[in-house]
């Protein structure tokens, strides 16, 4: 019951905020591409799902601030397309609840006869994102990932966020975002397994619909 109330508040909050003149709110849906420095792979091979809500507050001039509540999948994988003949296949899926807080600068104004319908085509954003690891899933025939996940993974993550947005109209937008963790996902100095420490970074490709 408590979880139901919590999620009801989460969903209702942007709708309430959107009714205020200085605020906008909407839904976010997208794809993540992730990798982890320190594992046995390279490249943004791990694809995942992302979805949630965004609230935007208008600031002065061409600037805005935003907050999102997202479900984000991260992790690592040795190949973008799994190969049945790969002798050492592995994948790690990390499911997060993520809360990015960002500052946006907008440009390329599209004007209409009624000012309330004006919008900016492009914007650039920077900020920080807090994420909490909910759970993880390991697919590893050789069991090396199981020696680390989930027992030695850091539950709380803080990341730097940089991105760019293009708006097709005042409701529909598309975002490319780079996310780099400031906290080690696995700190080898604090675990008996040793080895290399892990640091994750991701690309987010989002579609946004604002009310």
Itemize the secondary structure elements and their pairings.
Blueprint: H1 2-18, E1 23-37, E2 46-58, E3 63-77, E4 90-110, E5 119-140, E6 156-167, E7 172-181, E8 199-210
Antiparallel strand pairs: 1-2, 1-8, 2-3, 3-4, 4-5, 5-6, 6-7, 7-8
| Overall morphology | elongated
Strand line-up across the major sheet: 1-2-3-4-5-6-7-8
Major β-sheet profile: 8 strands, antiparallel, barrel
Q: Strand share of the residues?
A: over 45%
Name the structural class.
mainly beta
- The percent of residues in helical segments reads under 10%
Q: Oligomerization state of this entry?
A: single chain
- Rg: 19 Å
Average of per-residue pLDDT values = 87
Query: Order of helices and strands, N to C?
Result: HEEEEEEEE
How many beta strands in the DSSP annotation? 8
Please give the count of helices.
1
- The end-to-end distance, rounded to whole angstroms, is 29 Å
Low-confidence stretches: none
TL;DR?
With 211 residues, the chain is mainly β.
Describe what this molecule looks like in 3D.
By secondary structure, the chain is mostly beta strands. The chain is built from one helix and eight strands, in the order αββββββββ. The protein has one helix at 2-18; strands spanning 23-37, 46-58, 63-77, 90-110, 119-140, 156-167, 172-181, 199-210. Strands 1-2-3-4-5-6-7-8 form an eight-stranded antiparallel barrel. A hairpin with a 4-residue loop joins strand 6 and strand 7. The protein starts with a helix and ends with a strand. The mean pLDDT is 87.
């Amino acid at each position: 019951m408590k979880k139901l109330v919590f999620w009801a508040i989460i969903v209702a909050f942007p709708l309430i905020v959107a009714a205020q003149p200085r605020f906008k709110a909407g839904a976010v849906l997208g794809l993540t591409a992730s990798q982890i420095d320190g594992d046995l792979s390279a490249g943004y091979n791990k694809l995942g799902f992302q979805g949630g809500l965004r609230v935007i507050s208008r600031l002065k001039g061409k600037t805005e601030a935003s907050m999102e509540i997202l479900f984000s999948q991260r992790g690592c994988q040795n190949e973008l397309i799994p190969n049945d003949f790969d002798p050492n296949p592995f994948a790690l899926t990390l499911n997060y609840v993520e809360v990015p807080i960002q500052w946006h600068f907008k440009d390329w104004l599209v004007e209409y006869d009624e000012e309330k319908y004006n919008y900016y085509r492009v914007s650039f954003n920077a900020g920080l994102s807090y994420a909490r690891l909910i759970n993880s899933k390991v697919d590893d025939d050789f069991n090396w990932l199981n020696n680390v996940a989930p027992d030695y993974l850091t539950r709380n993550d803080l990341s730097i966020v940089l991105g760019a947005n293009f708006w097709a109209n005042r409701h529909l937008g598309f975002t490319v975002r780079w996310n780099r963790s400031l906290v080690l996902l696995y700190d080898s100095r604090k675990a008996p397994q040793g080895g290399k420490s892990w640091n994750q970074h991701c690309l987010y490709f989002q579609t946004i619909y604002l009310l």
